[in-house]
Amino acid sequence: MSTTPRVVIIGAGIVGANLADELTRRGWDRVTVLDQGPLPLTGGSTSHAPGLVYQTTASKTMTAFATYTVEKFLSLDVDGAWCFNQVGGLEVATTPERLADLHRKQGWATSWGVPGEVVGPEECVRLHPLLDRDQVLGGFHTPTDGLAKAARVVVAVARRAEARGAVFQGSTRVVGINQSGGRVTGVRTDKGEVPADVVVSCGGFWGRELGKLVGMRVPLLPLAHQYVRTGQVADLVGRNDDVVEARLPILRHQDRDLYYREHNDCLGIGSYAHRPMPVRIGDLPEVDDDDMGEAAMPSMLPFTEEDFAPSWEHSRLLLPSLRDAKIETGFNGIFSFTPDGGPLIGESPDVAGFWIAEAVWVTHSAGVARSVAQLLVDGRSEVELHGCDVARFDEIETTDAYVDETAQRNFVEIYDVVHPLQPKLSPRDLRVSPFHARQKELGAFFLESHTWERPHWYEANAPLVKELPAEWQPPGRDAWSAMFHSPIAAVEAWKTRTAVALYDMTPLTRLEVSGPGALACLERLTTGKMDKSVGSVTYTLALDEAGGIRSDLTVARLGEDLFQVGANGHLDLDYFRRQAPADHSVQIRDITGGTCCIGVWGPLARDLVQPLSDDDFSNEGLKYFRAKAAHIAGIPVTAMRLSYVGELGWEIYTSAEYGQKLWDVLWEAGRPLGAVAAGRAAFTSLRLEKGYRAWGADMTTEHNPYEAGVGFAVRPQKGEFVGRAALEGLSADTVTRRLTCLTVDDGRSVVLGHEPVFLDGRAAGYVTSAAFGHTVGTPVAYAWLPAVEVGTSVEIQYFGRRVRATVAAEPLVDPDMTRIRR
Ligand code: FAD
Ligand code: THG
């Protein structure tokens, strides 16, 4: 008799069915999959999905999911019938901007190991003869992409899971989740109760409703999307049959928000060109089990022909063969959109054992299912998940109003060429720091991150551009890297290195960890020594059990039982809360919103702050990486002596109501010193020069501290902590890959991140973050590469062009810490 946990999976779509397969493959054989619809065609999104699988995106994780989906579906069949038809993928460009973007995409493919090349118009037409040669400027061809037969995959994996003991039960609606003592104990259905130790909701666009059963906010919005089938297309007659269905590559015409696949001698056309059509669950068509089929299902709304009219015209322009064809059938099919386009994976923060895996495309379904199975069985996914974890969102990002607006915007922008820095247009000004009014007076150019408004530079500093010394004058940029950038950043960097600047650090997530168990809890969850004197600040890491980097943190001990943790976002709060002991000996509060922070940094920082305070801000009075309570112009503050930009100075914290006053007194005191307000553009440049990593971009759970160059923050001698055992025997000397500092040889070619890096002519790694280094006068890029010597020459591919760069000794600025420790 098996003793593995009893799992109930809600939803027998492509995600739920694959999860049952992945769990049973790992020996968890007490798996029950329930679906409200009949089996195997349940009437969910999977039942009608045309199944185009394009693997390449900017995200390494999403691409890895897709690559696994392809690999897995290729290995499946149902009674000999295919589950994946590897016809390849072709994305065509009809504008120069798109063509450039396809080169960028080819770079991502190279970074993540997907074969693909940009081809000219002749080759596009050879690959897809229906294309009008005169319409296309080129295309991106990916031979391993193709068509998933989604509904058939469900049958294939369900059969396999059933053979290993799983039970699939259709026509059973889950109406409640049973729980006891904060844990799931089973599900209630319209056919009775099913006990369970773990429940995984794979309810697709029903996910928000299912989450409500345990009070979990699932930030997704169901939206309709149009799909049509043409009648017979003369030029396709005789090419395919009903078994093969398609031989031409799947096709995307993103300049018109369209995609295409063959259905034997007809074409299927999907369109995102129409207005967003949000769907309320109460408005879904009611379909009896007996009537469920290709013609009617709850996930299909009636076709609204007028919405498709422009798409039909654009299709006939791109594919002249369609001019003699007509639309045979169409529908408005429903699936999920999220605030950032990513899927939603994770466990309820309140009800242990209730998991979700939703807002997942067919493309990523097998990869997501594998990761969820690994999380459940092994406690860790082999693919890193920070961009998929439902806990990545702050509370404001999970509200219905926010989700509705951002998900609809993502629908509209789905195929747009999007710059990595491009902010949301709306909603904006959701969270602003207490300095916001002053920042606006100074002409701040704001970008947005997790609903926080963050100045990137200040137009008020523009007059100083002409005062820049020659060696600080930044070179011109190409149009792409010049977007959302200003040469004013050079001024702000220059002033930070030579005078003093004020940085708004308010959006940085701050957690207060307190109580009699706080010290022991932090000792267990981080790599550093926490039992230090009150006033200590420690740069430390949170690791997972395998030694991967969950986060990097600063921990300030403000009292015996009171710590302030500088964190990277909501994921850290979620992790700490889950890990806190059940006996309430530790309280964890997110204090970000009620407090604020100004970074005062630069060689003149002390000249600015000391005259405003009776407290001792000298090097002896407040040493590097120490914190203390103080008053500045009578305002109670906590000053922390550290600097992400690598200059002398402090993070100065106060509660929100004093924020504007604090800004004003620092600003006034700074004027005679030539102080400026400085933004994120300068900040990023300076932090890269100083070699400070940004978690999420430069390092994640994929990497151990030694590879990432933060091994100095690990203190194995301090005793037990999460991840310690996994690091045993590892050191900076054992690593085979490394987060590597590169400088660009030509001194001017700025790259932005995710570009592939070539070593000896072969793709060997990828850029994580990059910026122009204003102090060193050359672009700086960090990249994951095999461990190589300083001085090694590499090439970075930027829009199909190769840019030479050299492995540099890091940090580039102040390696002996003389600037920061004065
Ligand atoms: P579903 O297949 O919807 O499964 C969820 C299941 O949960 C359903 O069967 C439902 O009945 C069940 N359920 C819900 N509530 C309950 C309850 N209370 N009790 C019991 N059961 C419940 N993706 C691609 O990758 N490529 C494409 O080309 C593509 N094209 C698309 C075209 C269209 C027109 C549409 C609409 C979507 C397309 N998608 C595509 C997206 C893709 O179809 C979905 O993302 C995917 O099928 C979602 O799978 P799922 O298993 O999460 O959800
Ligand atoms: N400020 C505070 N907390 C933070 C950040 C911050 N937490 C999240 C994130 N940023 C953490 N990142 C860093 C990266 C580097 C440093 C601080 C925070 C840093 N490093 C010193 C170094 O590498 O030389 C550490 C030296 C030491 O350990 O003594 O300063 O910006 N509050």
UniProtKB/TrEMBL annotation:
Residue intervals of the FAD dependent oxidoreductase central domain: 378-433
Q: Which residues form the Aminomethyltransferase C-terminal domain?
A: 737-814
Question: Superkingdom of this entry's organism?
Answer: Bacteria
Q: Which InterPro entries match?
A: FAD-dep_OxRdtase (IPR006076), FAD/NAD-bd_sf (IPR036188), FAO_M (IPR032503), GcvT/YgfZ/DmdA (IPR028896), GcvT/YgfZ_C (IPR029043), GcvT_C (IPR013977), GCVT_N (IPR006222), TrmE/GcvT-like (IPR027266)
FAD dependent oxidoreductase domain span: 6-375
Query: Which ranges carry the GCVT N-terminal domain?
Result: 435-718
Question: What protein family does this chain belong to?
Answer: Belongs to the GcvT family.
The name this protein goes by in its record: Sarcosine dehydrogenase
